[in-house]
Amino acid sequence: MISPRPSLIRELFQLAWPVLIAQLAVMSNGVIDTVMAGQLSPADLASVGIGASIYFTVFVTAMGVLIALTPNVAHLYGSGDRALIGEEVRQSAWLALFLGIGVILLMRYPEPFLSLSRLTPEVEMKVRAYLDALSWSVIPSLFFRVFYGFASGIGRPRPIMIFNLLGLTLKVPLNLVFMYGGLGLPALGGPGCAVSTAVIGTLSCLLAWCWCAYNPEYRPYRIFEGLSGPKPAKIISLLRLGLPIGVTFFVDVTAFTFMALFIARLGATTSAAHQIASNLAALVFMLPLSLGNAASVLAGQALGAGDRRRARRAGLAGIFACLGFGVLTCLLLRLGADTIAGLYSSNREVRATATLLIGYVAVYHIFDAVQTAAVSVLRGYKKTTVPMAIYVVALWGVGLAGGYLLGLSNTFGPPRGAPGFWLAALASLALAGGVVTAYFLRVSKPRVAA
Q1: Is the pTM of this model over 0.90?
Q2: Termini Cα distance of the chain
Q3: Residues 49-58: tens digit of each pLDDT
Q4: Distance CA 163, CA 97 (A)
Q5: pLDDT (tens digit per residue) in 266-306
Q6: Which of 233, 242, 208, 203 is nearest to 223 (CA)?
Q7: Residues 272/278/283/286 CA torsion (nearest 10 deg)
Q8: What's the sign of the alpha-carbon dihedral 378, 381, 386, 392?
Q9: Which of 282, 243, 247 minimizes the C-alpha distance to 365?
Q10: Secondary structure percentages of the chain, helix, strand, coil, to 5
Q11: Are 433 and 374 in contact (CB under 8 A)?
Q12: Is 448 exposed, middle or buried (0-12, 13-18, 19+ CB in 10 A)?
């Protein structure tokens, strides 16, 4: 096995830290929403958690398709064909528009999701209001993700960090206005945080593309030269690479979404505790996500330059780093579970249940970190179909189905409730992480000349 060199690890962290801060800023928005909604009522907290789960199911699937832009740009950057990057970006923008229309329709008509959760009328009304408000941000947010993919592929993630940090500074004041009422506006409660998210998403999109248009560092990529309409052949090429990524994201997110919807049957208190655990899991996930993204870009650029050995080293560096930080995060979560739960909610029952679930999240995170690194690097290799199949079997077959059997049925003894779902999720990621890592080692194995 080839060991990663220290210089490559430094490059990995140089690319990863701006992405980490950018992702933490986005996730901090979710933490702020959760904390502020938790101070209103369990119904508001539950509606924000369920609404966010539905939103991420449809939005992250579309975003996953657009991730195809990053390895394409990285390969072109590595090969020196930088003038061709502009057309890749333009066609991705058209694809983002088409995908955005579909996402908006699903958010405006969420009946298939709501029918699974058996919500009370109060919570359902708040969930619908949350989704309706957030639907206004879909297309600007997808256009921002196109900029994200382009900037990541050329190894310039710092502007993404700046725009996300700016959005974070606006989150609390906008939430105060829309959730609690102010400046002549009515108090919207939990759905008010979706309105503030829509405002921030639109502003970030406008700032990102203005930055791209007027910054001379981006001129060699010809983003705004020869503006063209949608080209079916190019969009189909993006879809061939991106659809398996989108399906993988869909499987991953729906495993969480349907977990939240099934757990909602156990009552607002358990649902609120699960929202805390899942929000925390998503927050700590940002570190392996940023490291995996950096490893993917380095591998893609190396492959574009024809250097397979460097590409493999980049992948191994990402996996080793994620494993090490995953173990450290696990220890911190186990030691501070009760304190962390108390930061989210002052309700005694919610806090006690959340503390129990955070113990599962701690171990879950180790496997989540490893699989994130491996699957991200495989995207740099433009290998997306096999990982998709692995995730379908592991996350749906073992995670979601196993969670239902352990959590809500008496197939394996008395129903374990929310802990049963988290136990099955842990097992599913252990399986996915092991198989995906083995596939990466096989794909990246240096070729021996005959």
Answers
A1: no
A2: 21
A3: 788 878 878 8
A4: 21
A5: 887 888 888 888 878 888 888 999 999 999 999 999 998 88
A6: 208
A7: -160
A8: positive
A9: 282
A10: 85, 0, 15
A11: yes
A12: exposed
